Amino acid sequence: MADVILKNVQKSFGRAKVIHGVDLDIRDGEFVVFVGPSGCGKSTLLRLIAGLEDITGGDLFIGGERVNDLAPAKRGIAMVFQSYALYPHMNVYDNMAFGLELAKSSKADIDAKVREAARLLQIEPLLERKPRQLSGGQRQRVAIGRAIVRDPKVFLFDEPLSNLDAALRVQTRIEIAKLHTDTRATMIYVTHDQVEAMTLADRIVVLHAGRIEQVGTPLELYHRPANLFVAGFIGSPQMNFIECTVAGVGPGEVLVSLPGGGTLAVPVQPDGVQAGEAVTLGIRPDHVRISADGALTGRVELVEELGENHLLYVDAGQGRRLTVREPGDARHEAGSTVSLDLAREFCHLFRGTGEALRSRTNATSPTSPDLASSAA
Amino acid sequence: MKVLTRIGFWLLVAAVGLFALFPFYYAVVSSFRSGAELFSVAYLPERLDLSNYVAVFDRQPFGQNILNSVIVAATVVALSLALGITAAYAFGRIAFRGRALLLMTILAVSMFPQVAVLSGMFELIRSFGLYNTLPGLILANLMLTLPFTIWVLTTFMRELPKEIEEAAFVDGATPWIVVRRVFLPLMAPAAVTTGLLAFIVSWNEFLFALTFTLTNERRTVPPAIALMTGSSAYELPWGTIMAASVIVTLPIIALVLVFQRKIVAGLTAGAVKG
Amino acid sequence: MTSAVAQADVPVPHQARGRRSSLTRSRLRSAWLFIAPSLIILAFIAGWPLARTIWFSFTDADLNNLNDYEFIGFENYLANYDGEWLGLLTDPDWWHSVWNTVWFTAVSVSIETVLGIVVALILNAAFPGRGIMRAIILIPWAIPTVVSAKMWNWMLHDQFGVINDMLLRLGLIAAPITWTANPDTALWTVVMVDVWKTTPFMALLILAALQMLPGDIYEAAKVDGIHPVRVFFRVTLPLIRPALIVAIVFRALDALRVFDLIYVLTANSRDTMSMSVYARQQLVDFQEVGVGSAASTLIFLIIALLIVVTLAAGRVRLGEDPR
């Protein structure tokens, strides 16, 4: 078991800098997920930790030891690849035994470990098969099994579920979570799927353009995004953003004037915000309510029925489109005019730099239904 | 109209097939005729006279020639593949400085005119005492097969997934183990293809074999056939030559029929993808 | 690996140190280790002999005694004795062989390209027995050149040859033709045999290119009712052009060094002698290592120039990212 510490880790390919000094402290036994849009450097960061790419600058520590110069096999890691990367010419048993064999383990030891992993993953009947005789889900298990037998201090997963179909993805996700519970090993997991990130992670690392945007628990990221990027990236449907100007500042709240003419007192720490400053107000679709006399009015453009809830896409004028999620069946049709109320305690304010103003209410809303529905 | 097109198409196919096969067919027919029979043209085989086939082995060391060819070709293939696969791993998968230049040089060597090295090679072979020996021919033929073996294997190597290699590194493999335990088995089909091409090149090689051997016992098949003479200097033993031609062509035809797909894959990997 | 254990609180000088991990270093090291044997052998059996050949071309070496020679500068190429120009560049036989080779290359590669396209189009059509047909056309390519030359020699025999017999029976000729001995027909005969032997190579390379073309453009052309001949010239040909050029270049480089075929088919006849045959004749038959090496060097330079032009033209892309 080991912690993983990154200190100002940088990576360049030729002149192109893809990782700009990442500092990260992954605790022993923690399940950390790297998310971000494609090209954000999340896979590169994982490969740096694995030792498959050279670190251009900074230091990487695994279990207290600086491993910048160590070969992958000496870092105490195991990796599960997106394409599984099983050895096509070896059967399942040999695929799992290969690493141990290279490490010169005894035959009995290898056998015990392989069979234990096979039992754990329920692939015992497949041990004699070649990878091409296996289904995608079975290959994935073998790939995980190959990682398990190495008994690594840190498991690395590179988008391991992206080649599986939806049903299998959910099932395997649950198994990986169980594996973490069972082994309590440190795990680092790369994905572009925020549902995987939200459900698996102890902490999520949001990456964007080679930089860390925010590190936190899934709910921290959801409820208190540190900036505009994280707010827009986490949560589905995406958070609504409305450009406004600061009308006034009070103790523990910021008064903003909405485009429609109304004002709203948002309960956040002003932190030096001046009246007249342009800010972005963010609010999740669940917290926009249709009411008789809301702060904004708009025309319903499109209705999407999802069964348990429905989405309204509302044109609030000047090309501003707001998404509203309401429970049950829709009671409005496309073309009708509605009035929208913004639940001010759920509003976020972002300054021109994208940085969020800290929320006054530190609590995550216990009654919020949104997490359950967004993870579905 | 449609029927006419059909008939035209099949006539074309038949013409191409006939053009390709007729010389070999005619060689077979001629090889079964001897003496004065050869002075008249026959389009169909009349009887199975094997006297030419006996004569090939009787009048000269043709069995030895075949054995020489097999030894040279087999050794050349083995050496080319052994050297080629390790080099192809380096060229195909490792971004080292100077790789492009080296690879380009090797490709250029594979296009070398053989005659350009003839006098230098002659000197080399003689100074090592390898003139008129099989090792001398092996060395010379390696110049023909090694560059394109490296080249073709490199193109195949590039197609193997990167992640398999990385998985092996995570498992603790050294580059050498990756080549031996992971890529060698995966490259087996490509190695068969490349090996076949190298075998055919060596089996057919003529200029070096003609220049670097002196006695009939040391010749490989091509110079042996080219220099076959009859009882008198003016009369060529056509029946015997045809029999010899059929004998050495049959294994090649068998290889082609069995490995047709692999050979085509190798040819196109070397040229089109280059 | 030496600095593997560094304390977290000790400041590590970042930029000064080598940035290569042990994996990269071991891969780079093994890259050179893996190519070293091949490079050494190639330097030994290709580079060194080539260098020696070029060196010999500036000497008066003799095949029987390769150790005793003198440096004579460019005299093998061109020399002036009492106002008379001598040397390779003044030898009409050399220029004849150059002309033969160029003519042979141009004519045979042209014919092979056209026929190769036809055969490739045939093989690209779906018909029963296509696989067998593909194997059949490979046979001429795989037969040793010496053997095919001998087979054709026999078929082209002036008295007992089947070709003359056929043409006489069909009434196309009145008297047997001495195909390989007659200066008018000899080089054409060489071209014909070369076409027979190497068209399959062309056809298979073109076929590979044809099979990479997307099928839907043909369906689209069919829907639009475009005549197949037009489709071929307007769609197929432009699309396979890169592959075609590569195939032509490969074939041309091969044809320029032709030796076996001409040597066996027509012996050292002046009418058909190629550059390679000329060089070997000087070198082995006349034992004139100096002149022979000079001819070899010129052949090398001609082909090297073509290779460089080809590579520079960017048709052959090298050293791209191996991943």
Q: What does this protein structure show overall?
A:
The complex is a heterotrimer of chains A (376), B (274) and C (323). With 376 residues, chain A is α+β, with helices and mostly antiparallel strands. Chain A has helices at 42-50, 92-102, 107-121, 136-149, 166-183, 194-200, 218-223, 228-233, 370-375, and strands spanning 4-13, 16-26, 31-35, 57-62, 65-66, 77-80, 154-158, 186-190, 203-208, 211-216, 240-250, 253-257, 263-266, 278-283, 288-290, 296-305, 309-315, 321-327, 337-342, 348-350. Chain A has nine helices and 20 strands. Chain A has a six-stranded mixed beta sheet with strand order 6-7-8-3-9-10, sandwiched between helices. The longest helix of chain A has 18 residues, at 166-183. Chain A is elongated and about 75 Å long. Chain A starts with a strand and ends with a helix. The model of chain A is unreliable at 362-376 (pLDDT under 50). Chain B folds into two domains: 2-39; 59-271, MetI-like (MetI-like fold). In chain B, 74% of the residues lie in helices and 0% in strands. Chain B is globular. The model of chain B has no long low-confidence stretch (mean pLDDT 88). By secondary structure, chain C is mostly helical. Chain C has two domains: 23-86, no CATH class; 98-273, MetI-like fold (Orthogonal Bundle). Chain C contains eleven helices and two strands; from the N terminus they run H-E-E-H-H-H-H-H-H-H-H-H-H. Chain C has helices spanning 22-56, 92-124, 130-142, 145-155, 162-169, 183-211, 216-223, 228-256, 260-266, 275-285, 289-312, and strands at residues 79-81, 84-86. Classes of the chains: A alpha+beta (376), B mainly alpha (274), C mainly alpha (323). Chains in contact: A-B, A-C, B-C. At the B-C interface, helix 1, helix 3, helix 4, helix 5 and helix 6 of B face helix 1, helix 2, helix 3, helix 4 and helix 6 of C.
Mean pLDDT of chain C: 84
Annotation, overall tally of beta strands of chain A: 20
Tell me, what's the shape of chain C?
Answer: globular
- As a whole number of angstroms, the C-alpha radius of gyration of chain A is 24 Å
CATH homologous superfamily identity of the largest domain in chain A: P-loop containing nucleotide triphosphate hydrolases
Question: How big a fraction of the residues of chain C is strand?
Answer: under 5%
- Indicate the CATH class of the largest domain in chain A: Alpha Beta
Transmembrane segments (chain C): 30-51, 102-123, 135-155, 186-210, 231-253, 294-314
Protein name (chain C): Sugar ABC transporter permease
Subcellular location (chain C): Cell membrane
InterPro entries (chain C): MetI-like, MetI-like_sf
